[in-house]
Amino acid sequence: MEARHLRYALALAEHEHFGRAADALGIAQPPLSKQIADLEREVGTRLFDRTRRGVFPTAAGTAFLTRARSALKEMTAASVDAARAARGETGRLRLGFVASALLDPLPDVLGRFGRERPDVRLELHEMATSRSTAALAAGELEVAITLGRPRGAGAEQLVSVPIGHDHLVAVVSSTHPYAGQPSVSVDQLRQQSLIVAPGADEPTVLAGLSTLLGKESPALSGATVARDIHTIVGLAACDVGVGLGPSRMLAAPRRGTWFCEVTPRTPLPDLVLSFSARDRPPVLNAFLDVIRKNCPDVGAALDRWLGPREDRFDGA
């Protein structure tokens, strides 16, 4: 039994005449009569009474047509759903990210993606770079935003594109001696109690600070460890010490704090977008399209990996 058999039966029930039904379907009457007869043989009972007044459903036919209407609606809905999923308009996107990405670019990217793809279910997971790399390699995420390029097992199977650049800045309370200064030097930082992100979670950042301050620096070994940049700023506001973090912290000023540049200017690991080089579901392609729109300098890098946009985002 095929969908056309259901359509033929419904058309015949509507027009109550083989000729009129055939005209409505755009086919000749003899093929329609044969298809209805074949359908009745397959069902095992007569579905229509042929009378001089017209063709009318039997009791069995009425029951069959009720189910046929529902079946055709479901088949149409299934086709629509499949087409929407193929365009990345539905489905699930699992994104892992470091906290600093919530300052930029995630607010604009997630806002735009939500407006353009309201029926996509977003699963957002804040996690350290090392954890998100493992999750990508294991297929637990479709995409991740990390500090620095992913390293370790499975990293070679990922496409990684920088989407943001950072340098080191310091944050202090408004009552700290450094408040009001445009910058602080590395020598000054060595004399202070510091607040830093955990090295186990972001080893590339710790390595950079070790190079800057000295591997055996008492200020670094005795530093207060904060979970993320928001905690760094919060502890600095409490005058616990001098917080060190990425320059994107400047996008989240807090009352009672002061930001200083660190001299010499010290680059930090890039904010990097990564995803599997082997498996890119349509919903991921749709997300990458939004990244391209919101981060124009990233578009060329994505095109080098994935090809021109029109070849990748049909209907996007």
TrEMBL record:
Top-level taxon in the UniProt lineage: Bacteria
Keywords, in A-Z order: DNA-binding, Transcription, Transcription regulation
Gene3D superfamilies recorded: Periplasmic binding protein-like II, Winged helix-like DNA-binding domain superfamily/Winged helix DNA-binding domain
Alphabetized PROSITE patterns for the sequence: HTH_LYSR
Residues covered by the HTH lysR-type domain: 1-58
Alphabetized SUPFAM superfamilies for the sequence: Periplasmic binding protein-like II (SSF53850), Winged helix' DNA-binding domain (SSF46785)
Pfam families (UniProt xref): HTH_1, LysR_substrate
Family from the record: Belongs to the LysR transcriptional regulatory family.
Protein name: LysR family transcriptional regulator
Native source organism of the sequence: Streptomyces durmitorensis
